[in-house]
């Protein structure tokens, strides 16, 4: 693929703040940064959606809400309700965590139904499905991607950023091969600098979830750890 300059990566980035202790002031700062730098969205917990939507009123930056986050182990109708209410509050995208235990138990019909309920609640709002790859075998990653491909979700996503590890180039490439060209792949967790971001895109990622977006588009290394 053609070389992308750091600034060209801005529209790949969901500028992310999912810490449980995130303050309203921090969310407002996140929104200002996303507007200033031209990021695609801000990604926040569903309870922060109303405030983020207010901060971004009149701006092109979307609000992305996480649902069933970070474990994915809640009731399916609860996830669907959370998605519905987040959209009503201003979310323009939804990132849900699939039921990891069900997937590992081979309960594929239940996994499919869990995603389908949230997908139905989303209507025309794009749904990304978080696989939490660090907890899955390659065969389980492939099966999850096949289910998502059958349901025609908008994206599959590597990680919550809250488990053992985040995105890898190998996982992004595997997900891209499995879902094909028509579904997005979001790399999240540990994408903290420009070289890593570029490697993820070259492997097939079409979106990046990161709290280090400013460092990425400046070409500078990110300081410390983070989402």
UniProtKB/TrEMBL annotation:
Pathway: Carbohydrate degradation; 2-deoxy-D-ribose 1-phosphate degradation; D-glyceraldehyde 3-phosphate and acetaldehyde from 2-deoxy-alpha-D-ribose 1-phosphate: step 2/2. InterPro entries: Aldolase_TIM (IPR013785), DeoC (IPR011343), DeoC/FbaB/LacD_aldolase (IPR002915), DeoC_typeI (IPR028581). It catalyses: 2-deoxy-D-ribose 5-phosphate = D-glyceraldehyde 3-phosphate + acetaldehyde. One of its GO terms (molecular function) is deoxyribose-phosphate aldolase activity. The keyword Thylakoid does not apply. Keywords: Cytoplasm, Lyase, Schiff base. One of its GO terms (cellular component) is cytoplasm. Its EC number is 4.1.2.4. It is found in: Cytoplasm. The active site is at residues 95, 157, 186. GO terms for biological process: 2-deoxyribose 1-phosphate catabolic process; carbohydrate catabolic process; deoxyribonucleotide catabolic process. It comes from the Bacteria. It holds the Pfam family DeoC. Catalyzes a reversible aldol reaction between acetaldehyde and D-glyceraldehyde 3-phosphate to generate 2-deoxy-D-ribose 5-phosphate. Belongs to the DeoC/FbaB aldolase family. DeoC type 1 subfamily. This is Deoxyribose-phosphate aldolase. It comes from Pseudomonas arsenicoxydans.
């Amino acid at each position: 693929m053609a070389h992308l300059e750091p600034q060209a990566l801005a529209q790949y980035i969901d500028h992310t703040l999912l810490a449980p202790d995130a303050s309203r002031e921090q969310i407002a700062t996140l929104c200002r940064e996303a507007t200033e730098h031209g990021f695609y969205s801000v990604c926040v917990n569903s309870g922060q959606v109303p405030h983020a939507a207010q901060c971004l009123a009149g701006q092109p930056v979307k609000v992305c809400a996480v649902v069933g986050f970070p474990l994915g182990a809640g009731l399916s109708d609860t996830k669907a309700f959370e998605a519905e209410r987040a959209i009503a509050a201003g979310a323009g995208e939804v990132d849900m965590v699939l039921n990891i235990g069900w997937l590992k138990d081979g309960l594929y019909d239940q996994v499919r139904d869990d995603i389908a309920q949230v997908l139905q609640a989303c209507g025309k709002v794009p749904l990304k499905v978080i696989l939490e790859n660090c907890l899955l075998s390659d065969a389980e990653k492939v099966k999850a991607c096949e289910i998502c491909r059958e349901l025609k979700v908008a994206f599959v996503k590597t990680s919550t950023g809250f488990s053992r590890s985040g995105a890898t180039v190998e996982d992004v490439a595997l997900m891209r091969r499995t879902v094909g060209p028509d579904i997005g792949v979001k790399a999240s967790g540990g994408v903290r600098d420009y070289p890593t971001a570029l490697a993820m895109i070259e492997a097939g990622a079409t979106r990046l979830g990161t709290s280090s977006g400013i460092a990425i588009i400046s070409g500078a290394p990110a300081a410390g750890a983070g989402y």
